[in-house]
Sequence to fold (406 residues):
Amino acid sequence: ETVRAWLARANAYGPQGDETYRSRLIYKLVHSYGWEDVHIDDARNVIGIRRGVGGGPTVVLNAHHDNVALWPKEQPIEAFVADGRVWCPAAGDDLMGVTQLLSVLRAMNAGNIKTKGDVWFVTFTGEEVGSPGAEQFVRANYPQNLDWRRGDILAQFHGGAGEGVSTGSEGYIHFSQLRVFVPLEYGRWRTDAVDALGPIITRVNQELRDSRSTRVGRETGGGPDMLQLNMPMVQGNAIHNGNSSEAWIRFDLRAATEERLERADSAIQRIAADVTHQMGPGFSYLYEVNMKLGAKGIDGWDRANNAAARMAAAASEALYGTRPIIDPSEGCGDCRRAYMGGMPAMSFRGTVVDYGDAGRFEVPLSRSHLSSQVRRKTSGHDVTESAEVVRIWAGIKQGLVFATAY
Fold:
């Protein structure tokens, strides 16, 4: 039944900038679940409110229902299930999240669950183009209807879940570049600049990897030390069969604090200096931070240690026995936009695959699924996305436990 609902939402047209059809479908669904307090706002966000009995904070459960516009409005979509996956545009980003969101609402209704605070069920528009839906929502409701100082929180479904929560709605980013130079007097077939860049890349990955992959638990207090490292572009000589006198790599570094990024910059330069020195006389490097992005944060809000994050992490720990991750260094577009408007937000996170009584398993995404024989042209289009059906349950369960307990 849940998968059929997922497919129905997928078949409703909803690319960014023209989400009215999908907004109306979600509006009707929330109404059909027995809640009259639901409306579509000026940004085409759908907002349904499940009233509490009083005395508790408000939880806003949210997902975004737009997808990237890749074909005309008259082009129908035919979502289908094969190989244990749902195949359609926006299957996982973020129609899985929308389905998780509405499944929590249905579960609360079925169990006649009462909460002290209100629970809002909200689907945002425009996440793929800067999150104007989230911006409109925060402007309209913060701080008069929602205020994090009272404990109110935005919690987003974005497909995965089961391991903890991400709270870094607006962290710090350094875009930097490392250039390595080889002595010009070296012969055509002698040492190449890429020969120096290769060991640098290897060492950077090895020495910064532990920080990059650290899963920050609430008990460690190590949240601000989280570092994300990406090396998205490498280039040497564009001429075939020629020696490179220069090679370079770009870095995308993200962390909860600027100080953490500065330490990463220093580590990269230390490694570059060591390698070029070992290569011999004349080898050199230049490291530049091309752009810095980020915000100082919201005064009084601790991304690494707050009540909502601790509760969301505890929910995943109770369900799956995982270490309670609180990751303060990343967030989706809607979370960042809400944060910029003064309202903290967080995302359920993880890659837990829940097979019910069979226990907890982690299955890495496989490229083989994306080249499956069942990937076919449907209604004339072959641009699609797919998402494993079994990934949906962890988010539903974690979100349900969080919303009812917090």
Q: What stands out?
A: Residues 211-222, 360-381 have pLDDT under 50 and may be disordered.
